[in-house]
Structures are given as structure tokens and as C-alpha cells.
Amino acid sequence: MATAASDVQTKYEAVIGLEVHVQLLTRTKIFCGCPNVFGSEPNTNVCPVCLGMPGALPVLNRQAVEFAVKASQALNLEVNETSIFARKNYFYPDLPKGYQISQFDKPLAERGYIEVTTADGATKRIGITRLHMEEDAGKSMHEGFADSATKTYVDLNRTGTPLAEIVSEPEISTPDEAYQYLTRLKEIILYTGVSDCNMEEGSLRCDANVSIRPRGQKTLGTKVEVKNVNSFRFVKQALEYEIERQIELAESGGAIVQETRLYNPGEGRTYTMRSKEKAHDYRYFPEPDLLPLIVDQPTQAAIRATLPELPEAKRRRLIAEYGLSEGDAATLTATQARADLFETEAKKAKSPKRLANLVISELQGRLKAANLELEDSPITIAGARLSADLLEDGTISSKILKELYDHAFAQNVDFPVIYEREKPQQITDTAEIEKMIDEVLAASPKQVEQYRAGKTTMIGFFVGQIMKASKGKANPAVLNELLAEKLK
Ligand code: ADP
Ligand code: MG
Ligand code: ZN
Q1: Domain ranges across the chain
Q2: What is the dihedral sign for C-alpha 401, 405, 411, 416?
Q3: Which residues, in sequence order, are bridge partners of residue 427?
Q4: Most buried of 29, 328, 345, 397 (most Cβ within 10 A)?
Q5: How many whole angstroms from its chain centre is CA 357?
Q6: Which one of the ligands is nearest to 128 CA?
Q7: How is residue 219 annotated by DSSP?
Q8: Distance of alpha carbon 18 from the chain centroid
Q9: Is 197 in contact with 204 (CB distance < 8 Å)?
Q10: Considering the entire predicted model, what is its pTM?
Q11: Region 257-275: what's the mean pLDDT?
């Protein structure tokens, strides 16, 4: 059975393309002055323009353009000096004008990419076809009212929220690559600050297109679009399910139909929602109420100058400066706040490398076990810095450090607090340490002989034994000095 299944798996390959909508964090909406905020009383942030009253005219929001350009640049896209707004016509109750202002054949930006790591560890560029600007629609509310069984309500606060739609090439090969693409995309957009990418509030939304084809075939298979999946994990699960469904269908001689499906995370299945519209169904035409959008080179350069150091560049730099591994650098740069915090403390630390090691091994290990994020850690990066310094100058041993970390986690306090509370009574009294050294050396005549015969690495053995005898409390500097003298 197992071999048969994997034979079928290798006979086909999946092709995935993602469409991501990102709400831009402008103060006001894209074509009117209504506030662009989440969570207001329904239908309070509206005006004749976003309600689609006849005769009301759109005025393009400059900040929305700047944000969309900034996102484009961060995603390696080329920004077109001229782009055109177009009407996408369709009927739906949450779209009062009967059309959505979007961009069609001349989008704001084209030809970008995001890098992912393939299953065999290679770096792969996923092409981004385009980033275009458009307005969001309102929200139909099917649930939560006394008469929801018979009525649907509409909230038009969201109507006219500026969106950037980012469309990938059909170049993603596995659900895991799709997951990485989305994670990277979100990370990059968050770094630029143009969106909060909050999936719960709908400020980042993802549609996943997927088809299969016999491995090696050049032409694309019929695609299915899975709409509105509300977490990256669910996107991955929905794709896994959908690829398997399509393969089974193909194997049993059925036909895959082009359609839009919905993912039900509870059941882990996708369901048919509707047959998919084609572009011509939307009767696109240029928006006559808006001029072509011009973003000239000086404007593009001025916006580019406001880009922060982006995650990939930061990772490269941290790897070079602190000797971190790829994975560790990824952990420390997952958010800009985290990266900034680490760098601030690393600059103050006696050994930045040691701080990085502690954060990654001691802290991350405990956080994983407690199922916590670095941001929720009882030991902060600043707290960890104190521990790194104490370790560096030999005030505490690594054994004591581990204990203090355990206690800090158990008592949910930061390192400096636990250190003050339990300040380990270090033994610095030379007489006491000398006594321990004498005992250990007396109990290990063979090792002493080996040492004197030139095997100087034995020193590690002695230090370990003496530390153990002192329960980790012997001051390492004093110990080392005394031991060296005794062995002379
Ligand atoms: P539509 O007009 O149906 O929206 P697009 O050509 O705009 O189709 O593509 C939408 C998304 O679907 C893009 O991300 C694209 O990469 C992806 N896509 C297109 N064709 C396929 C296919 N055969 N299999 C998987 N993904 C596809
Ligand atoms: Mg499309
Ligand atoms: Zn308005």
C-alpha cells in the first residue's frame, strides 16, 4: 500500500500560485477621507464616495500609493512609472458601486520574487507576477443577529480600505514552500510597516491556486482556487488535502474542474463554493474618474530611501557579525522588534556571541518546552544579557546559570530578579578551594600522572571534578589559578 501511494505521489507534481491581499495602514481610505480603522460600529466610517452614491468622485490617497510602492520595492518588484486604475464589475451586496476599482493590465509593479528553501535545502526564487492597488469591499454578516436565519446584514466600514494584491507566479511546488512564501512575505511587509498583516482582523488574506500535472509535463493542469483560508497553517493543510484530492481524482479517471473551493479546518477538507469566473466575466475597463497614476523615478527613489534594513539583509549581517547559524538568525530576525532588542543588548554585552548562544540554546529550548514565544519569555533578552556577562567573567558557572534559568521560568521572573533573589554564594575563599583541589588531586593519582607526563588536556577533567565537589559554586577564575599552581 505504502509503495503504491508514493508511486502515485511521484507520478504527479503540484503547481501552486498564491494571491495575497494586504490592507494598507493608511489613516484614511483609498478614495475618500473616511477613517481607515478596524472595529468601529457598523456603517459609521462611510461617506458618499465609499457608499457609491451617483456623482461622487474618487480622489486617490497619496499615502496608499507610497505604501504600495514601498511594499513593491521590498518584494523586489519593478514599479511602473505609469499604472492604470480599472473597474472590475460584479454584483455583490457588499459592493455598493457594482464595481471594484482595481488595476488590471497595467498594475503598479511587476516582476519581483521571494526566496524559499526547498526540501533538499536549495534556495529557490518564487516569482511575483505583480502587485496592484485596489479597494476593499464591505462585509456581509451572516451570523450573530436574532434574525440571522432569514437576513444578512452588510457593514460598509471596510469598503474603500486600500489593498495591495500580491500575485505569485505558478512556481510554488509544495505546501511547505507555500507556507514559507507566506511567512517571508508577511515578515517583509511587517518590516516595511505598511500593514499590520493581522489575519484575524482580515488585514492579510490569502487565496491559494493549485493544480497537478504528470511530473515533467510543461503545460499547466486545471487549477482550483481555495479562497479565504485564515491562517498559514491552514493554507498548508488545505493544499495538502487538495493535492491529494486532485491526484485521486486523476487516478480514478475523473476530471478536475476549474472552480473555487472553501477549506473547512475542522474537517480538514475543501468544498466546492462556485465555478470560477474568468477575467472576461468582470468586463474590466479603465476607470474614467481617475487619471493614470504616475510614480516617477525621483519619487520612487525617495520612497526607497525610507525602506528599513529588510529581514534577509539583516539575517546575512547577523550571521557575519555574531557567527549565528541560518536558523538562529531567522529566529532572531522573525520580527523587527525582536531583532532590534537583540542588537541593542548584543552591543552592550561583554560577548555578543555568548548572548546569542544563550538566547538560542538556553532560552529557546525552555520556551519551546513551555510553548512560549520569545516575546512572552519570563527571561527577556536584556535579562539574558546580564546572565551572559556573569558567565563571561566567571562570576557564575554554566551549571548555576542553567539552574537560575530553571528557577526564573518556574517563578515567572526575569533573570536579574532571580539572580538578586538567589545570588549563588560563590566560593572565592582560596583556602576552601585549595582544600577541594587537594582532595580531587589526591583521589585521581592516575590522571595527575598523565597530566605531568604532558597530557595537559587533563586540566578539564580536574576542573570538572572540583566544580562538582563545590556544587558549581567555586569561582572559576580562582579555581583555575590555584589549580595551575598546584599542578606545576
Ligand atoms: P485568474 O484569472 O483565474 O485569477 P491568474 O492567471 O490571475 O488567474 O492567476 C491567479 C493565480 O493562480 C496566480 O497566483 C497564478 O500563479 C496561479 N495559477 C495560474 N494558473 C495556475 C495553475 N494552472 N495551477 C496553479 N496555479 C495557477
Ligand atoms: Mg486573479
Ligand atoms: Zn468614505
Answers
A1: 7-301, 311-422, 430-487
A2: positive
A3: 474
A4: 29
A5: 22
A6: 1
A7: S
A8: 16
A9: yes
A10: 0.83
A11: 90
Give dist(CA 405, CA 420) in Å, integer.
Answer: 13
Q: What is the pLDDT of residues 209-224, one digit of tens each?
A: 999 999 999 999 999 9
Distance 45 CA to ligand 3 centre (A): 7
CA of 137 to the centre of ligand 3 (A): 12
C-alpha closest to that of 383 among 330, 337, 342, 353: 342
Which of the residue ranges 5-9, 371-375, 475-479 would you say has the lowest mean pLDDT?
Answer: 5-9
From 318, 398, 396, select the one nearest 353 (Cα to Cα): 318
Distance CA 439, CA 46 (A): 83
- pLDDT tens for each residue of 451-477: 989 898 888 899 888 888 887 788 888
DSSP-derived letter for residue 279 is G
**Ligand nearest to the backbone CA of 172:** 1
Residue 2, pLDDT score: 44
Tens-digit pLDDT profile for residues 331-366? 889 888 889 999 999 999 998 889 998 998 899 889
* Region of poorest pLDDT, from 131-140, 417-426, 441-450: 417-426
75-98 average pLDDT score: 96
Mutate which of 132, 181, 223 to test ligand 1's pocket (most atoms within 8 Å of Cβ)?
223
∠167-168-171 over CA atoms, to 5°? Answer: 160
The predicted structure's pLDDT at residue 430: 86
Q: Residues 31-52: pLDDT tens digits? A: 999 999 999 999 999 999 999 9
What pLDDT does 6 receive? Answer: 64
Neighbouring CB atoms inside 10 A of 106's CB total 17
Could you give the CA distance from residue 426 to residue 178 in angstroms, rounded to a whole number? 52
What is the spatial distance between Cα 375 and Cα 386, in angstroms, rounded to a whole number? Answer: 18
Run of H or E residues at 86: strand 85-89
**What is the third-level CATH fold of 430-487?**
Arc Repressor Mutant, subunit A (1.10.10)
Distance from Cα 209 to the centre of ligand 2, integer Å:
10
- Name beta bridge partners: 371: none
Rounded distance between C-alpha atoms, residue 60 and residue 68, angstroms: 13
The rounded Å distance from CA 213 to ligand 3 centre is 46
Q: Is there a contact between 104 and 114 (Cβ–Cβ < 8 Å)?
A: no
Q: Based on C-alpha coordinates, what's the Rg of the chain? A: 30
Instruction: Pick the ligand that lies closest to the CA of residue 33.
Output: 3
Q: Looking at 74-83, 138-147, 161-170, 297-306, which range is the least confident one? A: 138-147
